Amino acid sequence: MTEYPQLWGGLECTVNRVHEHYGDQIRLSGHQDRLEDLDRFAELGIKAIRYPVLWERTSPDHPDQCDWAWSDQRLSRLRELGVRVIAGLIHHGSGPRYTSLVSDNFAEGLATHARHVAERYPWIEDWTPVNEPLTTARFSALYGHWYPHLRSERDFWLALLNQVDATRLSMRAIRRINPAARLIQTDDLGRTYATAALRDQATFDNMRRWTGWDLLCGKIDRSDPFWKRIAAFGLEHRLQTILDDPCPPDVIGINHYLTSDRFLDHRLQRYPRHLHGGSETQLYADVEAVRVLDPPSQGLEGAIREAWERYRLPVAITEVHNGCTREEQLRWMAQAWDVATRLNDQRVPVEAVTIWSLLGSTGWNTLLTRPGVYEPGVWDVSSGQPRPTAMASLVKALATKAARPPVTTEAGWWHRPVRMVHPPVQRPAPITQHIAGSRGPTSPRPLLICGATGTLGQAMARACSLRNIPFILTSRQDLDLSDRASIGAALERLRPWAVVNAAGWVRVDEAETEESACMLANALGAIALAEACEREGIPTLSFSSDLVFDGTKGSAYVESDAVSPCNSYGRSKAQMEAGIAELSGQHLIARTAAFFSPYDQYNFATAVVSALARGEEFHAASDLVVSPTYVPHLVTASLDLLIDGEAGLWHLTNGQALSWADFAKSIAEICGHDPSRVHAVAHHAFGWPAPRPANVALATAQGPQLPSLLSAMEHFAQHFREQSMQNAA
Question: Could you list the residue ranges forming a coiled coil in this record (predicted)?
Answer without folding.
Answer: none
